[in-house]
Design goal:
The protein is built from eight helices and nine strands. The chain has about 220 residues and is an alpha/beta fold. The strands form two sheets. A seven-stranded mixed beta sheet has the order 1-3-2-6-7-8-9, sandwiched between helices. It has a two-stranded antiparallel ribbon with strand order 4-5.
Length: about 220
Amino acid sequence: MSAFPPLDGPVAQPAAGGDPRSMVIFLHGYGSNGADLIGLVPFWRDALPHTVFLSPNAPQICPGAPGGFQWWDLADLSRAGRAAGVRQPAPQLNAYIDAQLDKYGLSEDRLALVGFSQGSMMALHVGPRRAALAGIIAYSGVLADPDALAVEGRTKPPVLLVHGDADPMVPVAALSQAETVLTNLGFETSAHVCPGLGHGIDDAGLRLGGAFLAKVLG
């Protein structure tokens, strides 16, 4: 039995009804919650009518953000701090993923992770260390522990990186850094910079994300 309380959050069942044939798990950003990214479902469900969408709340209450959660606290913003921080909630997230795949009777190659900001760091950390994900989308994220990925990675799912060039929270340079590391390790990596976009997801990012998911889960 897990030593951690299970994650929970909003779920959107397949638009076509019936049992899902694929799964998308959203991983929200710092201070947000599962209700945030589940709002992307209306943009994608027509292209993914047999997909179940899940958006768990991160495991920790976020101080100063009413109704918000964090994957880990951001007291240490150094590279070493990110590398250590991203490992803290990984067991809980992996347990959640395992439970949801079992619940819906889906294999891991029918799952895609979609993260935003701190949630992107979680997706890029956990995804390659699992058995065989269909794909990963990282919006406004950072590859939190690039040095360890070459040693700890088990698989190389396709990755889409999307970032605004006016992001005041996570510099857009994080995209090119992640792209370089992932490409050099043999990941099929696509990257898109959104002109004028701050810390968010715009229409272009939504279109790219929908097309990516339709491809890897199709």
